[in-house]
Amino acid sequence: MTDKRKIVVIGLDGAVWSLLKPKMDKGYMPNLKRLADGGATGNLESIYPPETPAAWPSFMTGKNPGKVGAFDFLVYDPVTKTEHPVSAKRRKGTTLWKYLTDAGKTSLVLNVPTTYPVEPIQGAMISDFLTPEDARDYAHPVELVEELEAKYGHYPLFFKTMSFVAANSERNCEAFLDECEWMDKTKFEVAEELFDRYDPDFTMIHIWGTDRLQHELWNLFDPEHPRYDAKIAAKYGERIEAYYTMLDDCMGRLIDKAGEDCISFVISDHGFGPTHFFIDLNSWLLREGFIVLKDSLRVKVKKFLWDLGWSPLNVTNLLQPLFKFAALFKTPSPHATIRKATGALAIPGMLDLNKDVDWERTKAYAPFGWSGIYINTRDIRPHGSVDPADYDAIRDDIVKRWDAVVNPYTGEKVGGPVHTNDTMYHGEFAQYGPDVMPLPLENKHMPVCFFGFTSKDPVYKNSTLFGNHVMDGILCAHGKGIEPGAYQDAILYDIAPTVLHLLGLPVPDDMDGKVIEGILTEEERAKGPVKTTHHEEAATSGSADALTAEEEAELRDKLKGLGYL
Ligand SMILES: [Zn+2]
What we know:
Bound molecules: zinc ion
Number of helices: 19
Shape: globular
Number of strands: 24
Distance between the termini: 48 Å
Strand content: 15-25%
Low-confidence stretches: none
Mean pLDDT: 90
Number of domains: 2
Radius of gyration: 23 Å
CATH class of the largest domain: Alpha Beta
Largest sheet: 9 strands, mixed
Helix content: 25-40%
Structural class: alpha/beta
CATH architecture of the largest domain: 3-Layer(aba) Sandwich
Strand order of the largest sheet: 7-6-5-8-1-9-21-2-22
């Protein structure tokens, strides 16, 4: 019965119904409308934090981040007490496509974040934007690399235009949209070609442009955004809609190619919403006394200057007029270039989380990216000093004080849900994840730790990223076996067990996800209950087979340039 069945999963990074539904209703996305109207829909809840490098590993393993060990762009290695960029070697857990390969199924896995180094699956794989820039082995089989580059010049794993500048000027917006369109169109073109070649049972493609575009240009399609620019919005509004129509057209073609026995999923790893304000977690923790600075003259001078306004935020704001021309300076590695440029200006005299903090007296900090607040527990954190007996009291104190944070611009509480480690994670790596995670973005505020201590005032007006991630992504399933009109919410890690079940395979019992039975037809459910199989991951191997130090350094550069570190 399931022999001819094909599964196609299209992962639109950061796609959200609030943005897509109006496009579907206005006729900009006829294929998605057809799939949604004739299939099952719902919200697909992300994991904590709702961030790409934590979310896709959870998706592909069917597990919560406490079992996968990836909470942000950096992964903590408890053996060496060091942090490393997330990669296929640094996350834990057997992937969906490994199970499919073991069952003799053919897969096509394209551009899913954290798939470098690529796995030798049955079928083909191309890695993602977290690949070292000079890697010549980003595809399996490896001959594909040469073939792709002969045809396309370069395969679009990376953005070449600078981040955070797209909405600054017409020139930047134009260059950014050019690249989004070319990148995602090319990825779909390659997907179609490889589909014909491999005739895969399972196809997965990840589209990055949706996430980048929503980060950089949300202010252009949201007149209520404080940074709404009517002139640029009028000029590029239709073109932004056309980008989504292009994606819709590509999705329709790929799904049609898979034939009438295809079950398609259009999903996202998290949703999206407008950001009006940033909240610098470390500045807040410093103000509240959870971070203590070193007692040296050098650090006191730095703090004095910082109090006067010598901060990354003010330097970035001063540079804003220059960023209007950023699209002119395309380089092979724009992210490293912008990091070096801002780094050179920002470093002298600025407070630094790594160098200026007294770790012996610091109780909690926000280490990297956007993942939340970490309690500086002895034996767990790299510079840990807090007695585990004090953990609960410190955690509860942070949660209580966060509830009192007021935005000075609005006079209102920042609000939003606050989660703690014990309610977010379970598994081998749970204790290495964040301990307190405020998610005020559901309320237009975004917690950040870009440069350590970005701004003296923890709450500040956003001038770079106009939209960011929220918990609810999208779920749309369609095809024979899917109940038309069904509405069912699910969690991102439910997709892997659902795919296995639909292909007639048992679900490993160490997956956290459950088969989304609410979207299945009665006929499909009558085929029998979900089968399970016992599975245990091999013991943690530590850092032996990770990327080289050089590759990791280059990835750190890239992540810093994208604002992730
Ligand atoms: Zn994003």
